């Protein structure tokens, strides 16, 4: 989660070089510990040059609905709409209406114990801590996330005890992910998939896990 100082540094560079900002803020309501989500478009002189992308699916735990939105100044949103209408075929009306009602309800109970977004962060932080504890017990070095519901772990110490060299894959993380799925029925994401071909080696000792799961599922993973 970017701090105010980090965002200010980015904002200053954008202003200096007259650059636009496309902010991915889909995890805006899933922030842990004492961290705080700060919107780039709230910084001085940044509203005019920022498009903010949000995910209603992630905000309300209905990712299968595949619905979100972007907002910003009119002069940036108008051309974005032209692109969008030629890429997305449809988003059914009942789902749009349901999300609109959900936002209206959350705004009414914002900063109250009934606020779903507050409950969501608390719930997922507990699940994050559970998975961190599990992975450390099996000798993985964990990068503890400050938000979202994925974490990255270095599996190189653990992998010394297993032979996964026979699995298909260009990098070790692909091979380990396949071995883990076949032999332990656990599914992780090889992070090198997000890297360019020349940089895949940077991520090959890591694996990515999602902890937005039932507690029972996380406990079974430890077994």
From TrEMBL:
GO CC terms: mitochondrion
Phylogenetic classification of the source organism: Eukaryota, Metazoa, Ecdysozoa, Arthropoda, Chelicerata
Enzyme class: transferase
GO terms assigned for molecular function: kynurenine-oxoglutarate transaminase activity; pyridoxal phosphate binding
Pathway assignment: Amino-acid degradation; L-kynurenine degradation; kynurenate from L-kynurenine: step 1/2
Transferase listed as a keyword: yes
Family, per entry: Belongs to the class-I pyridoxal-phosphate-dependent aminotransferase family.
Organism: Leptotrombidium deliense
InterPro entries: Aminotransferase_I/II_large, Kynurenine-oxoglutarate_AT, NHTrfase_class1_PyrdxlP-BS, PyrdxlP-dep_Trfase, PyrdxlP-dep_Trfase_major, PyrdxlP-dep_Trfase_small
Protein name: kynurenine--oxoglutarate transaminase
Enzyme Commission designation: 2.6.1.7
Cofactors: pyridoxal 5'-phosphate
Keywords, alphabetical: Aminotransferase, Pyridoxal phosphate, Transferase
Residue stretches spanning the membrane: none
Domain Aminotransferase class I/classII large residue range list: 1-221
A single GO BP: L-kynurenine catabolic process
């Amino acid at each position: 989660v970017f701090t105010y100082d980090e965002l200010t540094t980015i904002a200053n560079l954008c202003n200096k070089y007259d650059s636009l900002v496309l902010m991915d803020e889909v995890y805006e309501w899933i922030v842990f510990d004492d961290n705080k989500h700060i919107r780039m478009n709230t910084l001085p002189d940044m509203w005019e040059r920022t498009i903010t992308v949000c995910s209603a699916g992630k905000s309300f735990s209905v990712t299968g609905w595949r619905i979100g939105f972007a907002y910003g100044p009119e002069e940036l949103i108008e051309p974005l709409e032209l692109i969008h209408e030629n890429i997305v075929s449809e988003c059914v009306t009942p789902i749009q209406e349901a999300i609109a009602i959900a936002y209206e309800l959350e705004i009414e109970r914002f900063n109250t114990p009934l606020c779903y977004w507050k409950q969501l962060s608390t719930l997922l932080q507990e699940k994050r801590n559970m998975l961190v504890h599990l992975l450390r017990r099996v000798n993985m070095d964990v990068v503890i996330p400050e938000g979202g519901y994925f974490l990255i772990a270095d599996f190189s110490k653990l992998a010394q005890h297993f032979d996964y060299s026979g699995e298909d894959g260009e990098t070790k993380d692909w091979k380990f992910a396949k071995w883990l799925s076949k032999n332990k029925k656990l599914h992780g994401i090889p992070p090198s998939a997000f890297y360019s071909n020349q940089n895949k080696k940077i991520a090959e000792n890591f694996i990515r896990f999602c902890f937005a799961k039932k507690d029972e599922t996380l406990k079974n993973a430890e077994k």
